[in-house]
Each structure stands twice: as structure tokens, then as C-alpha cells.
Design a protein that fits this description.
alpha+beta
């Protein structure tokens, strides 16, 4: 499901850049998609809708806090966040895990210092998760490998 969401999350850009995630979700929920049940299509559309913007969307309000779908959503949101420049940026070792209250992401502190826009985006992302009653904790790890900071 995550692979499909990753491959299709920008399909709505062909309609409009503004709010493309909404267009993408609509297309995925309405298109004839052989091999996908209607339930799977709705799930895929919900994950794509949630990949950017506010998490406190009507379509996500009925999603239980313990739903494994949140793990797919965090994975796609983080992938988009880290690859937003679409450049060949060397990423550090990123560790993400589920915790009782949400998610924990751990990165080398030096790398975050060298990438202040990503650091700020992670802070904003943590605010979004708080808005839906889940936690995104960003841990700054000491650098174990000097090359990871590059």
C-alpha cells in the first residue's frame, strides 16, 4: 500500500499544484483500479490525502489512534519531507519507530544543524501530529559516523 501511495501521491498535480494532494486522493478514490477493492482504494486515497498538509482532516477523524494506517502515513509524510528538494542530498541514518503515544524519529544532531529547513519542517510536522492526539518525537543523536553528517 505504501509503495502504491508513494508512486501515486502526486497524480493530482496534473489538475492543479495547489491542493494537489486533495486532487490525488479524489482521483484514487474514484478511478477504476483493477486489483484494488473499494476498501483498498479508499485506504490508498486516505493515505495520499494525508501525505501533506493538516492531519486534522475530516477523512482522518474516524481513524483510530492504534490504526496501522498511521504508520503508512508517517512513512509517506517523512519521505516527502526528506526528499522535498528532489536533489541528490545524502541522507543520514534515519530511525523511526512506533511508540505508545505515536512515533519517534532519530537523526544525527549535526545533520539537522546542517539542514535547518528540514529541522524546522520536522518541528512543524510534530505540531501536526499533536493536533490529532499523536506524538512525533524528534531525537537528535550524537554522530556515530563522521560521514553521516555530510
Amino acid at each position: 500500500m505504501l509503495r502504491w501511495a508513494g508512486g501515486l501521491h502526486e497524480i493530482g498535480i496534473s489538475i492543479a499544484h495547489t491542493g494537489y494532494h486533495k486532487h490525488s486522493a479524489y482521483i484514487l478514490s474514484q478511478a477504476d483500479m483493477p486489483g484494488f477493492s473499494q476498501k483498498d482504494q479508499r485506504r490508498l486515497a486516505r493515505i495520499v490525502l494525508a501525505h501533506r498538509g493538516k492531519l486534522a482532516k475530516q477523512e482522518l477523524q474516524d481513524l483510530p489512534a492504534a490504526s496501522p494506517e498511521w504508520s503508512l502515513i508517517i512513512a509517506l509524510r517523512l519521505a516527502v519531507l526528506f526528499c522535498r528538494s528532489r536533489g541528490d542530498v545524502a541522507l543520514p541514518d534515519i530511525r523511526c519507530r512506533v511508540i505508545d503515544t505515536g512515533f519517534e524519529v532519530a537523526l544525527p544532531g549535526t545533520w539537522l544543524e546542517q539542514h535547518p529547513l528540514t529541522d524546522a519542517a520536522l518541528e512543524t510536522e510534530a505540531d501536526e501530529w499533536r493536533a490529532v492526539g499523536l506524538k512525533l518525537e524528534v531525537l537528535r543523536l550524537p554522530d556515530e559516523n563522521p560521514r553521516a553528517a555530510q
